[in-house]
Amino acid sequence: MQLKRILVDEYSGFSGDVVKRLAPGSTLIVDDRGAGDYGAEMQLLPWFCVIAVDVKSNDEITVTLAGGAPVDDKIRRWVRENDCNFAEQPQLSISITLHCGDQDKLLELAQLFQNIVVRGRRDAVPGHKYMCSRTAIALRRLAATLAKVWPPA
Fold first, then answer.
1. Which structural domain range is residue 83 located in?
2. Disulfide: which of 23, 50, 66, 101 matches 153 by Cβ 3.0-4.6 Å?
3. Residue 79 — pLDDT band, cuts 50, 70, 90?
């Protein structure tokens, strides 16, 4: 599959492993995690927002965000309008199926995360500034990668 190959080239492997064969249904981690995102026991820090992509075909993927990302009313509305699977407890989980040309939805969601920590807006949790920005950057990168294969809608 061309889409899966582009994603593998961009993100260097499925679930952190070297890919020998591109099997259907493989999950790719696209959250740009690094060594600083793990605690002393080599577990992801609890605030980290995991972003995973499951490639169903060249024209369909499922994107899942899970972890400590804050959610406001605008994100909740976006989730409802885009028919996402959504849960806030015990932790955030947003799952959306995208089809060829839908990559701009990721840009919309990225902007909503970025707006949570826009300059001048106060947030009770200082870490949100860092985490929301990282999540937005990762979503924008994924949208740009999809645009290499999918024409805009």
1. 2-147
2. 101
3. very high
